Fold these 2 entries.
Entry 1:
Amino acid sequence: MALTKIGDAGMPAGSVLQVVQKHLVNTQESTNSTSFVNTSLTQAITPSSTSSKILVTVSTQSVTSSSGDFGLYGLNRSISGGSAGELGTGENFAANAQSGNWQTIHISFLDSPSTTAATTYTLRFKSYAGSNYVYHGWGSGKDGSSQIMILTEIAG
């Protein structure tokens, strides 16, 4: 009986081939830009096949400096250090409410990069109206927040 290694072409569609994670703690970033700006939550993965899918999962925290504005979140992808492109044609994947209270943001997106080159995903954020600052992540020390990006390669 031959053994099949993870990443071999013989893995059935839907099999998990690899998982990588970026975990940030005690990191806070802010913007009042109405155009997307990169956060520090970024992670690379090198797919083993051009037919692989990449499941991008993000968990973070967000707040606006006061009510009357809200933060919007998106994702982009860059292949082998090339120019970055917005996933989902630049749509907003998540938003915080106009409450002025911290909220947890969760994003899941299944991408088809069609490459075996290093592929980097980055969480981006912006202010809807630009009238207030949007904050991403909070705190320091043991009371700081965790921001997580998990990239899962799935056989196509």
Entry 2:
Amino acid sequence: MLEALIKELVAIEDPRCEWKVEHRLLDILVIAVCAVLGEAETFEDIALDGRCKRRWLEGFLELPNGIPSHDTFRRIFTLIDPEAFERSFLAWVRAVFRPEEGVLRQVAIDGKTVRRSFDRQKGRSPLHLVSAYATKHGLVLAQRAAEGQGGELAAIPELLDGLDLRGCVVSLDALACQPKIAERIVGRGGDYLLALKGNRRKAHAEVKAWFAANAFAPGALLRPFFDAFDDGHGRLVRRRVFACPDVGAFATLEDWPKLAAVLAVETIRSIPGRGKVTAEIRHYLSSAKVLPEELAIAIRNHWRVENALHWVLDVTFREDASRVRERNAARNLALLRKVALNLARADGSLKGQPKGQAQVRRLGQRLHGDPDRRLISCVHPGSGSHRRRPHP
């Protein structure tokens, strides 16, 4: 996995004038990866981390003019084409991500805003990024920026085009619940699992009315195929999942490609001692021809993109606190955090998820001969709750 990362980093084009180059681009990128794994949040942190570890870094990097300054790091990440960086990230993930055969693969796609990346002087709103996340392996597969007209909805087709979706169930929220996106997923060999809400007014009204009459009305005959209780997090939750036995019963869904399942999920929550009970019913469309129980699990697992990706980016890597406002730099730094997260998750000896303010114990590298033959050994963040900064 790490050899493939170095190979892709080498392939990134250096945007600087050749006669002005004092520091190798590969050195800069490797130092940045090491620093982000070691809790660096700003360009100043990256430069400081490099200076503190200079003797160690000189063991495997050339560093012809020492450690670059923080201004150099800022300038490089501003000049690097984020599209090229994202393509190299995608190529790296596709080269090393080998899903298990015969196991239901789920790719959850969702957007996240880097809240402090706005720039009022230039009239720029915060940067919004759309990510594809492998729910089983905990890896980020791809990233695209939702810029310009169309926003997140326009970025999703571009994200899908770069992924190998054969045998995958792709789950998205209600914003992407459109026949065109479903057709794109099916055309690439995948299956869709889409939340159906009020933005598809007629379809949602028909599906909601059918389940209200056949599943939730007194004396209704439709039985849930999934019914489970959960008493974690200080609350009691009951989840019931229903499936319509005949998807042809819905006239408004005739144009949906390969529609195989229409589902309703009822969630009843209560907090012991407070006497308050809430109920919510959500609806889903899917083309996956699998057991309904597997779809129920996939619906629940979709939220891992929030809990195991977005939450970790905010708490562990403090992404929302980043005040980098230059668009290219903010976008490249966001991808750098995902590189660090994938490296941490790739270590099978690390139990559990990386926790907030994790620290690196060791990231050893040895580069020999041909640039494509590189070896990196990595021990990933521990679970310490305290924060350590490098000391000069």
